[in-house]
Amino acid sequence: MKNIQISEELFFALVKYHLLEMDDVLPEIKKGLQEKFEAMVKRELYTKYKTAPTEEEREKARQEYLEKVGMHRSFRW
User: Fold this and answer.
1) Residue partners of 22: CB distance under 8 A and separation at least 6
2) Using an 8 Å Cβ cutoff, are 17 and 26 in contact?
3) What per-residue string of b and e applies to 20-48 under the rule 16 or more CB within 10 Å gives b?
4) 3-state secondary structure of 55
């Protein structure tokens, strides 16, 4: 299982929520976790693009990555 790093800000928000039972940090936690998840998905797609065994798989992964990062089709090569 891989380790995942989170920001210190997100860590303290999680501590406040779970240990101090402060519910007002919940939106901050949701936002931070969503951003981290999106970054992980993008990184996975990029890695897949760089390590795909065939040219077809590499191009498919590249297109998925570009879609995920929001690059407009007219700017792609």
Assistant:
1) 16
2) yes
3) eeeeebeebeeebeeeeeeeeeeeebbeb
4) helix
Q: Is the dihedral of CA 25, 29, 32, 64 positive or negative?
A: negative
pLDDT per residue as tens, the chain (77 positions) = 889 999 999 999 999 999 999 999 999 999 999 999 999 998 998 898 899 999 999 988 888 888 888 777 766 56
Residue-level pLDDT at 68 = 85
Q: Count CA atoms within 13 Å of residue 67 on its CB side.
A: 9
Question: The whole model's pTM is what?
Answer: 0.75
